[in-house]
Each structure stands twice: as structure tokens, then as C-alpha cells.
User: Fold this.
Amino acid sequence: MSPNVDQFFEERRSKSRKLAEMGVDPCGAKFVTSSDLAGAREKAEAASIAPASESEISVRLAGRIVAVRAFGKAAFVVLRDRSGDIQAYLRADRLGEAGYAVVKLLDLGDFVGVEGTLGRTKTNEITVFAKSLTFLTKALRPLPEKFHGLSDTDTRFRQRYLDLVANPEVRERFVKRSRLIASLRRRLEERGFIEVETPMMQAIPGGATARPFITHHNALDIDLYMRISPELYLKRLLVGGLDRVFEIGRNFRNEGLSPRHNPEFTMMELYQAYGNLDDMMEITESVVSGIAGELGGGEVQFGGKPVKLASPWPRLDYLSLLAGKAGVDPASEESLRSAAKKAGVDTDGLDKWALMDEVFSNYVEPGLWDACFVCGAPIELTPLCKARPDDPTRAERFEAYAAGMELANAYTELNDPLEQRRRFEEQAGGSSAAETGGKLDEDFLTALEHGMPPAGGLGIGIDRLAMIVLGAETIREVVLFPLLRPRETGAATAETPRSN
RNA sequence: GAGGGCGUAGCUCAGCCUGGUAGAGCAACGGCUUUUUAAGCCGUGGGCCGAGGGUUCGAAUCCCUCCGCCCUCACCA
Assistant:
């Protein structure tokens, strides 16, 4: 620890000891409040208090001190909680000698409770005129600077609590993410879906193709995989008669990090028996545009450019987009290969379908700015999806895009157990299955053989939805604790102050 | 994994190109101050300049290696 941090720490410890000597617990106790800070503000506004006057409205409020402006025998402190900030005015003549002695020992970062009346100062600032101050908790380390806040991304992500305290817009963003998920849950429940939880540790990681994380269960002495998708378990529930199910939870993929990828990310997946792709479109449009309206006030900006999320979303054709936006002939492997090469893709060993996917994500995806559905991707890429009745080479599938990112993916689900087995076997021959030994999920196939009703299925990437709705350009701004390389243990030890 | 950028006080940053031994604001400490809004005024302390090595009489500054973060690419149904 640097001498400077040591100095802060020792000074604050000494104040903490002084408080204890005065009979004040430096790590206080329950404090009943009359409302949060924003609630007190609203009350004050509603009472239309004149400048430089006090009302008779009493409040009890608590928060962390984020600013102190002290005079000899009076001080203004700004309190902050989850809802916002409010100023409190502490005067020696109102708090008494003992009370004001505590004020003298306050530091930025301490938690306090105040009881007093709401009013406005002569500068018209809503203020709690304190009758008493209750010390709640001492902060032994200093907070980041009050004006510029905290901007170093390393510290912001590693010590997110500092980011949340110092940067109100960050706190607000995560509150909104929580509201987003609550709203999504409510909207699905209104449609008769029930929320379920399926295994995150799976013996065979299915439902997608991605490299899994491997873990080990000691008692059974078996390797397990962190799920890459809940799909195969949710479908088992359709077999079991839970006709409308959804799950909101983490998926894990052992792949690279990027502004759009975190190895653990949050997905919403739902399955609706007796439905199909059209139902999934309706749900996606309605839920996403509804949430955006609720949280973003209808106006959503990403990277300074507006993104249109209001329904209806245009239905675009996968192959037409390839021809139109990428200028390739989707039927020609050579045309696809040369386009992929031009985009800097290493095309060795890629088959026609993989090339198509590369061309799509390099040439078409970045330009899909306003929300839209891309329909009819080739069946080869989607072993869990039904083929189109009119064109068996294409999947009855859509992917929803907005702000140049894939936001959702939906199928009319394949419920033919024999066809499903054939597709799995085909896939097991491919290279992507090597990681998990190419094992077929026989238990899932058995479930299908018992009969899965025709169904539509939908997955929405919640982190990306949050990014778009909240205008965050990197996933790290919507994930509280994004994955970072752990610090050296030596450094971590040095952070811990020695006791005495 | 490759390329580029960044790393200086608790925080936000200057200094680096053109080497001469470390600066500002906020925060902290002492003093004055009972209506401030990044409060003010006077004074004080605080840095192995990410780590290690090299060049040099002399390195925050130039060179090399390593570590961490960010960006782009690659990996990634």
C-alpha cells in the first residue's frame, strides 16, 4: 500500500476511534427512514416551499456523504442513496455540542442518517434542516473525486461499487437494467408463460454450438459442462405439458471477449406450444418495443444514432440481403469465398454455409440498424429448427437485429424425433462436435419420441437488449461484473491493510 | 493469438516529442468562516512516474522485456 493510502486509512481509523470514545458506534445499526432521498425531494417539491424557508414536514433520511461544505459551526452535506441525492444542513446550535462534535469527524464516504424538516435554502436548494444526526458507518478509504468521478475502466469494473457510488449515471443504468428484466418477466407472465429453471450444469452441452466451460462433480466423479443454452431442457418441458415456459438466466460460452461478448451472458428463452414463428415475431416486436418505450421514452440512441424499435419491424429475406447488401451470389460457393476473403476472413476449411454466415456477419449485419427480422437462413445452420414447408433448404427461422447486433433468434421448432436424430448425427460428424466427444443427447431424443407439440421458440439476448435500450456501446456497461483477468495475488494482498 | 494505444499523488490529468532528478485541480491535514452548490481564504503533508533490464555523467522522458487495461482483428452456428 502506498504511503498516501496509508495516511488516509490511519486518519480515518483515528476518527473512527474518536467516535467510539464518544459513545458513537462507527459501524452503526438499523435506521428507520421515512422514504428514500428522491421521495423526500418529491415531497418537498409538492409542498411548494418558498426559498429560504422551512416547512413543517419532518423526514428521516439516510445515505452516503458524497460532498461536504463545512463552515465553522455549520455544514452542508450531500447525501446519496439508490434514488438520488439530497442536501442536509447541519448547524451546531441545532445539533448541540455533542451532535456537532460528530459532524467534525465526518468524511466523504461515511453513511449517516438525519432527522429534520424539509425546506429550501436562499439559493432554492431542497434541503433537510437537521434536528439530529445519526452516525451509521465510517468509510476507512477515500471515495473517487467528486467532480470528474471515476473514469479508469480498470478500477470501474474491478471495483464496481466505486463506480456506482461515484457515477450516478452508472447506478441509473443498472437500475434500468433491472427494470427491463422485471418488465420482460411481467409481459411474458401476462401472456401465460411460466418461469422455470433448468440445469446450468449439463452432462451434454446442447442447444447451440459453442465451446463450453468444463467443470467436475466430485461425488459422481463426472465432468459436467456449463450450459451454452437451456433449449433442450425447455423443450423437455413442452413434452411434459408445460405449454408456455420461459427462462431468464446465464449461458456460458468459452469464447473471446469483445464489446459485444462476455463469456457469461444473460438469455431469455421461451417456448410456446401450438405456436410457430409468426407468434415469436409478434412477441419479439411487442415486448422489445414495449420495453424500449417504457424505459427509453420511445427514443433510443446508439452511438449517437437513433435506432427505431417501434413495431412493426420489416421482414427481410436472408438470401436477398446477401445478394443485395453483400453483392454475392448466395448459390455460388466461389462468390461467397471471395467475398469472405475480401473481408479478411480465413476461409480455409469453411464450407458453403459457414462462408455464407461469415459474409452475412461481415457485410450485412453491421448495416441492420433499425430493428428488423431476417428470415429464411439456410437449414444447414440450424439443426433444431423446422424447414420451411415451401423450401426445405431454408429454416423456418428469424433472427432479429438492431443497432448492427443480433438481438433475438427464433424457430418454428423441429418436433420430428427421427428428423432430429438425423440432424444430430449429421452434426456429430462435423468438427464442431469434437469438443464434447460428439455425444448425442439421447435423453432429449427420447423425450421427443414421446411427442413434443408443434411450437415456436425464441431467444433474446438480454445484455444486448439492455445495451440498445440503454444506449450502452459495450457489454461491460450493462454487466455489473464483467470478466477481467484476475489481479496478481500479490497485488491483492498488498491492498489489504494490516491490522493492529 | 496479432497489431495499435494507454499506465505519473486516493481521484481527474499535465510533463515525455526536444533527457537535468515531479506539477495542477479535487481529496487529506492545521487554521478562519452559521445559507454553501466543484464554497472561499491562509498554511502543510503526500509519488520506487505499472514492474524489471539497458543506453547515458544523468531516465517519468530514449531502447528492450514483462504485467494490466482499452481499441481493432482473429477465435466464436
Q: What stands out?
A: Chain A has a mean pLDDT of 91.
